[in-house]
Design brief:
Strand 2 and strand 3 form a beta hairpin. Strands 1-4-2-3 form a four-stranded antiparallel beta sheet. The chain has three helices and four strands. By secondary structure, it is α+β, with helices and mostly antiparallel strands.
């Protein structure tokens, strides 16, 4: 399953949201990748996510496969859309 997103957090996908995303992704029995400009990162790895250097306005691709793919896409999509943008004030 594939979904596309634009980073809406003014600080981008910095350490705090990367840690939260990795924690969320780790809950699922699925392979979860984030792709930016054809560079893929394991969404369960904070280091991989930070390596992407996602900034405000960047387009990313969420690619999920495996047993929990449908549930994972739903949960991560919701998190990106509803919570990632709010982390700048936390």
């Amino acid at each position: 399953m594939i979904r596309y997103f634009i980073i809406k957090n003014k600080l981008g996908l910095h350490a705090r949201p990367a840690a939260r995303l990795a924690e969320l992704a780790s809950k699922f029995d699925a392979e979860i990748k984030i792709d930016k400009n054809n560079v893929k990162a394991d969404a369960k790895s904070i280091v991989d996510l930070l390596h992407l250097a996602c900034q405000f306005g960047d387009k990313i691709r969420l690619e999920v496969s495996g047993k929990d793919a449908e549930v994972a896409v739903s949960a991560i999509s919701k998190w990106i859309e509803e919570e990632l943008g709010d982390l700048t004030t936390n």
